Amino acid sequence: MDTNIKERLTQIVNNMPTDWLRLTTHRLDIYNESLAKVEFLQKLEAGVELEELPTAYDYIRLGHPLSCVLEWAIAKEAGLNAESVISFSSEIMPILAVLRANKFLGKRTLIVSERPLSELFQSVYQYDFIQSQQLDKDFDGTTIVIDGSEKADINVARYPKLGSIITVNSNDEAYIKEIQHVRRRESIAMTPQNCLTVIKAMLGESPSEMNTVDTTELTKTIQDITNSKTQVAFSNCGLSAQYAIMMGQVHFANVNHPGKDIKFIVPPNCYGGTNDQARRVAACIDNVEIIDLPVDSGKDMVTELERILTDVAHADGVPYIIGEIPTNPRVEIPDLIKLRETLKKPRFTDDGATAVGAVFNLDQTFCPNVKFFGDHGYLNDVKVISYVSGSKFPSGGLCTAGYAVASDSAAEYMSYIENHLKLCDNVATNLQLQILTREMPGMNERIAKAYANTRGLVDYIQKHLPKAKINFVSHELADATFTPSVFSLDLPATSEEHKRELNHKLIRMMIEAIPEESKHCVSYGQLKGCYWTVPATSTQGTTKESDKDYIVRVSVAADFDLKKHQEVFKRFVKEAY
User: Fold this and answer.
1) How far, in Å, CA of 521 to CA of 533, rounded?
2) Which of 92, 98, 121, 548 could bond to 536 as cystine, CB 3.0-4.6 Å?
3) Closest CA to 149 of 114, 124, 105
4) Mean local confidence (pLDDT), 107-136
5) Strand duo 142-146 + 109-112: pairing
6) Sign of the dihedral through C-alpha 359, 360, 363, 364
7) Is pLDDT of 409 > 80?
8) CA-to-CA distance for 124 and 250, rounded, in angstroms?
9) Nearest of 217, 215, 229, 187 to residue 94 by alpha carbon
10) pLDDT digits over 477-516, tens only?
11) Percent helix, strand, coil in the chain (nearest 5)?
12) CB 412 within 8 A of CB 248
């Protein structure tokens, strides 16, 4: 390794801020999304103090300071642009990222590896590739070499139990963008802790291996919280769980309902990752289609589902629903009795045959404490897969791991979900499992305290700015155990532009007045303080502009100074109105 690079890496390892290892979300007020990673590395190379560097990525699933440092060091050694080196927590997903890109480019792919890829990547994922143990220099297409010394179009270096690093040796921006998008939507960057392990190994330090975590205790905790009796699938993030659910259900349908079209029914304005990923999966697979499910702004989820499920039944399709309860960012909850009846209702094809029943894939990240299963669960006797992003309430914002469980009648899907998590190497890391095991027993207590703080702030805002539209649960829903600590705030304004100015004024006032608690960040469920963001601009990805919500989303923690935040809001109202 170059002496200068080695010295710089040593300085970074010895002086890096503790937040580089600890946080899952980073400040948006010092983040330029169009220059993600680039600006951070430019300032790093210019010698800016580590504490003063801009945000590398807003959320560690996409990347983080240590992934950028690791990629920068490898790129320097290889004579590449830093953007051409991308780390993954998975050993498989970077390969799938290239296969996905080539599918739409119409290019052939040769994978050179001693270990063959599963045939499921061809039959279920519908990717096209040739496998060999030998490099073919005359191959007309893209060559990926895995763990080999030969330089190819693309090289993937695998680090067992840590992840992998992909290098695009042509510096091809189109590939880089596509690979980064897969990391953003279907997997995660190599975790901060694992990046540090690889960096230290580059500096000559022998890594200490973490023992495999026994998940018995964690599994029981999750089963007690959810009332689910099924196995628990642990993923490296919530979207990895969703990806395994979707691909597992495609696989299940191919086996059990061969020849039928698969319909994923998805709200068009739900959280960007959920929405974007679902459409990306459908784009890759011939017999998979997305059907929009309007849920907000006067549309009723149950009424819309009744119509859509009837249409899918007539067409003899296989219906899978993806939905968040409560919805995000407008925090709305459908009539759960009617939802259950709609999901249970027998339906028939045009030929009079019994149609395939629906499965509800429930993103329960906003309210993981609510019991949908068991004797008194809201959806206890219908087919439901519940999944949660662990970066929110389960871990208190300390890791991105997620998990999935099923109702009794949907238990047959869990082996498929587990299989596809392992197939894509998107399982939770040992450290993530350790964090969940430690933090989840106290989750419901944190949720209750955070809800009380949120209710206090919501009530204060309603009193001092009654014209503001607040999306939050009613007291009746809270009594029914729906106690989120997230609300959306639609500020009264004279125009859309004026509203956006007010959004930023409010956020700026909060983070400047209470910097130790108020952060301009994307996430919720954190252990301390208050996160402020405008989801439409920072998380909604490829969501259509007409479906975006330019409203403030506020997430409150159990450890929170309510009085200070109320005082700043009162001052905001005085200045703005």
Assistant:
1) 6
2) 548
3) 114
4) 97
5) parallel
6) negative
7) yes
8) 7
9) 187
10) 999 999 999 999 999 999 989 999 999 999 999 999 999 9
11) 45, 15, 40
12) no
Sign of the dihedral defined by the CA atoms of residues 489, 494, 499, 504, in that order: negative
What is the rounded CA–CA span in Å between residue 166 and residue 187? Answer: 14
Q: What is the distance between the alpha carbons of residues 563 and 517, in angstroms, rounded to a whole number?
A: 12
Bridge partners (DSSP) of residue 480 are none
DSSP string, 344-410: H---B-TTSPBPPPPEEEEE-SS-TTS--SSTT-TTTTS-EEEEEETTTTTTTSS---EEEEE-GGG
* Model pLDDT for residues 512-565, shown as the tens digit of each residue: 999 999 999 888 888 999 999 886 444 445 555 555 567 899 999 999 999 999
Structure token pair of residue 566: 């109320």
- Two tokens at 369? 């404490």
Instruction: Bin 227: left if φ > 0, else alpha if -120 < ψ < 50, else beta.
Output: left
* Look-up of token digits 């997430």: 555
- Residues in a beta bridge with 232: none
| Token pair in block for residue 302 | 């149950």
Q: What is the enclosing helix (H) or strand (E) of 123?
A: helix 120-123
DSSP strands (E only) in 97-185: 109-112, 130-132, 142-146, 154-159, 163-168
Strands 530-533 and 518-520: parallel
Q: Copy the structure tokens of residue 221.
A: 């905790």
How far apart are alpha carbons 336 and 326 in whole angstroms?
11
Over residues 109-131, the mean pLDDT reads 97
> Which tokens sit at 291?
């059907």
Predicted pLDDT of residue 272: 67
In percent, how much of the chain has pLDDT > 70? 96
Between CA 116 and CA 93 the distance in angstroms is 15
pTM of the model: 0.94
Encode burial over 387-412: b for 16+ CB neighbours within 10 A, e otherwise.
Answer: bbbbbbbbbbbbbbbbbbbbbebbbe
DSSP-assigned states of every residue in 418-454? HHHHHHTT-BPPHHHHHHHHHHGGGHHHHHHHHHHHH
d(CA 414, CA 403): 11
Q: What is the pLDDT of residues 332-359, one digit of tens each?
A: 888 999 999 999 999 999 999 999 999 9
Element containing residue 235 per DSSP (H, E):
strand 233-235
Specify burial of residue 134 (Cβ count, 10 A radius: 0-12, 13-18, 19+): exposed
- According to DSSP, residue 214 is labeled P
Structure tokens, 334: 């459908």
Backbone φ and ψ for 555, nearest 5 degrees, come out as: -125, 130
Q: Are 295 and 332 in contact (CB under 8 A)?
A: yes
Alpha helix locations (H) across 210-288? Answer: 216-226, 238-256, 272-284
Backbone conformation region of residue 106, classed left if phi is above 0, alpha if psi is from -120 to 50, else beta = left
Q: 């252990």: which residue's tokens?
A: 527
Residue pair 278/246 in contact (Cβ under 8 Å)? The answer is yes
pLDDT confidence band for 298 (50 / 70 / 90): confident
**How large is the average pLDDT for residues 36-49?**
95
Residue 241 CA to residue 233 CA, distance in Å, equals 8
Q: Which two tokens stand for residue 289?
A: 């289609």
